[in-house]
């Protein structure tokens, strides 16, 4: 998975539809999430599209599997994950993911329908991280 800084660097050079294409490409590059994990328990509430997030732990690092049934939403999911993927749970729990995503100006770049679930997804990721960091 590409780093958030790498994605931001490319994103800043793009405009309009090219930014949408980049988000779609990021979504396509997500690690596949097995259908068996796409359950009500892994569903992110408040998203206009269906979004599933499943946390795993590899050593001290958190690793997330995620998917969406909408291409651009899946790209936004990939963007959120690029901020937290494979980092220590304690670091993710303390991280200001919203601030990390601010340079992408998603609220002004995308419709409110596409971004309404982002805070819920961030909250879910941070809750998983805090639970795992807490032991």
Automatic annotation (TrEMBL):
<comment type="similarity">
    <text>Belongs to the SufE family.</text>
</comment>
<dbReference type="InterPro" id="IPR003808">
    <property type="entry name" value="Fe-S_metab-assoc_dom"/>
</dbReference>
<feature type="domain" description="Fe-S metabolism associated">
    <location>
        <begin position="15"/>
        <end position="127"/>
    </location>
</feature>
<dbReference type="Pfam" id="PF02657">
    <property type="entry name" value="SufE"/>
</dbReference>
<protein>
    <submittedName>
        <fullName>Cysteine desufuration protein SufE</fullName>
    </submittedName>
</protein>
């Amino acid at each position: 998975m590409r780093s958030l800084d790498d994605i931001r660097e490319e994103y800043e050079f793009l405009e309009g539809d090219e930014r949408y294409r980049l988000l779609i490409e990021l979504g396509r590059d997500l690690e596949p999430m097995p259908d068996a994990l796409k359950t009500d328990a892994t569903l992110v509430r408040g998203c206009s599209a269906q979004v599933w997030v499943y946390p795993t732990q590899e050593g001290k690092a958190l690793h997330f599997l995620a998917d969406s049934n909408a291409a651009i939403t899946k790209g936004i999911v990939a963007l959120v994950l690029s901020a937290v993927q494979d980092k220590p749970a304690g670091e993710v729990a303390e991280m200001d993911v919203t601030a990390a995503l601010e340079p992408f100006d998603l609220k002004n770049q995308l419709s409110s329908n596409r971004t309404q679930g982002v805070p819920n997804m961030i909250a879910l990721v941070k809750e998983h991280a805090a639970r795992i960091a807490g032991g």
